[in-house]
Specification:
- The complex is a heterodimer of chains A (86) and B (259).
- Chain A is mostly helical and 86 residues long.
- Chain A has four helices and no strands.
- Chain A has one domain: ACP-like (Non-ribosomal Peptide Synthetase Peptidyl Carrier Protein, Chain A).
- In chain A, α1 (2-16) packs across α2 and α1 (2-16) packs across α4 (72-82).
- In chain B, 30% of the residues lie in helices and 29% in strands.
- The longest helix of chain B is centred in the first third of the chain and has 15 residues, at 55-69.
- In chain B, α2 runs parallel beside α5.
- The chains are: A mainly alpha (86), B alpha+beta (259).
Chain lengths: 86, 259
């Protein structure tokens, strides 16, 4: 799980082009959206595309999305359960 | 068309370097030109969204940032923005098509295909809350945007205007098979902070633009070419007039000194 969290941090930085952010700056338990990373709704959509592209994971509805994107930790947990590739 | 409009500040990202009221700063080793502009070259503080900016937005943001940082005008509530993008957000359009072809269309790139996204980034970051105008996809876009900027001041719709002109077609894009017509590779941006009052530091350059109907048979690049010349005059604080024939307009841009 820790390895996946580290991988996800790197993928989030790359996918969202978060300049001035390093993986160690991201708190795995902190809120992804509305937190210190300054992510917005477009970024969330970009992360949904990332999940599907890299892990074959889809988000079926908004409620699941809210839970999944609450932190990197929850994102990793969801991927562990539902991944079909990567 | 306009009179009594002053250049309060100016900046440009050009192939030869970054131009501002302080002069020219050439690009660092390894930087090929405006497309490689770094955050630390245009902003003092880290900005987490800088890396997300698409080429056109980054170029507009860069020139705007430098022009605003050198401007004496701090009132942003009533500052307007007028943006001209001759080739639209072509570079971003091409990136978006690439993402579609990859099977995973990028929402972030799609949102940046709107030319107005540059204005949004600038307005949000710098707290500019006045009216805005975008003119895109026309080879006279920058001249028209300047006309709009002057009009906003003359009609007192704004107390100052940030005018930006962006050409975001780099050499890579210019060779794209997705383009129907050859476009000259242009990757540069300009920004002017315009005010109805002269600055009190002795820099009192008045700008005016007069437009006449005209016709140019074929234009392969935008009117940003003329602004390179205009900015040379600004740097040297020289007066002069430029006769511009671009797209469907003929215009005369003039810089005069007070007194």
């Amino acid at each position: 799980m820790d390895s996946l969290i580290d991988t996800l941090k790197g993928q989030i930085i790359a996918a969202l082009k978060l300049s001035d952010v390093k993986p160690e700056d991201i708190d795995a338990g902190a809120p992804l959206v509305g937190g210190g990373l300054g992510l917005d709704s477009i970024d969330t959509l970009e992360l949904i595309v990332l999940l599907e592209k890299e892990y074959g994971v889809t988000i079926p509805d908004v409620n699941v999305g809210r839970q999944v994107f609450s932190s990197v930790q929850s994102l990793a947990s969801y991927i562990e359960l539902h991944r079909t590739k990567g | 068309m306009s009179g009594g409009i002053y250049v309060d500040s100016f900046a440009a990202l050009l192939p030869e370097g970054i131009i501002g009221p302080q002069g020219l700063r050439t690009w660092d080793h390894g930087q090929s030109g405006p497309r490689d502009v770094r955050r630390d070259q245009i902003l003092d503080k880290p900005y987490v969204n800088f890396g997300k900016l698409m080429l056109a937005d980054r170029l507009a943001f860069g020139a705007a940032s430098i022009a605003l940082s050198e401007s004496a005008i701090t009132e942003r509530e009533t500052m307007a923005i007028a943006l001209g993008i001759p080739a639209g957000s072509l570079s971003t359009d091409l990136r978006y098509i690439e993402s579609v072809q990859s099977g995973f269309p990028s929402p972030a790139i799609f949102s940046a295909t709107l030319p107005s996204s540059a204005i949004a980034d600038i307005a949000i970051y710098f707290g500019i809350k006045g009216q805005n105008r975008v003119i895109a996809g026309n080879s006279s876009s920058c001249l028209y945007a300047l006309e709009q900027a002057c009009m906003l001041l003359e009609l007192k719709k704004a107390t100052s205007v940030l005018w930006c002109c962006v050409a975001a077609v780099d050499s890579q894009d210019a060779q794209s098979p997705l383009l129907d017509a050859p476009l000259a590779a242009q990757c540069k941006s300009f920004a002017l902070v315009l005010s109805p009052k002269p600055r009190d530091n002795g820099f009192a350059m008045r700008i005016s633009a007069s437009f006449q109907p005209g016709s140019v048979s074929r234009v392969v690049s935008g009117d940003e070419l003329y602004f390179s010349e205009l900015f040379q005059l600004l740097i040297n604080q020289k007066t002069g007039s430029l006769h511009c024939a671009s797209g469907d307009v003929v215009a005369t841009l003039s810089l005069e000194k007070d007194g």
